[in-house]
């Protein structure tokens, strides 16, 4: 096994160890599209287009992954979504 192959294998192992969490946003019958879009822009740093697409997916599919990253990075973002009255969780 060459040194380049060892480095690639080591990187793959490190990526698996780090792991990524996701914020899942759930559909509800309370919040408007505009409120969801504005909140995603504010809490998750989405562009208006990203936020609109996520809101449509949530509406039709019932849920959507809106942000991925480490738990420590996602926790304050998820808290902002919850404080705005949206239904979300980190998985």
From TrEMBL:
GO terms for molecular function: peptidase activity. It comes from the Bacteria. It holds the Pfam family ClpS. Residues 22-84 form the Adaptor protein ClpS core domain. One of its GO terms (biological process) is proteolysis. SUPFAM superfamilies: ClpS-like. Keywords: Hydrolase, Protease. This is ATP-dependent Clp protease adaptor protein ClpS. It comes from Winogradskyella haliclonae.
């Amino acid at each position: 096994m060459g040194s380049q192959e060892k480095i690639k294998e080591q990187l793959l192992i490190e990526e698996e160890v780090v792991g990524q969490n996701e914020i899942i946003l759930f559909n509800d019958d309370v919040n408007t599209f505009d409120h969801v879009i504005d909140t995603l822009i504010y809490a998750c740093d989405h562009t208006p287009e990203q936020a609109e697409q996520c809101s449509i997916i949530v509406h039709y599919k019932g849920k959507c992954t809106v942000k991925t990253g480490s738990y420590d990075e996602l926790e304050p973002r998820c808290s902002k979504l919850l404080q705005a009255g949206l239904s979300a969780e980190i998985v």
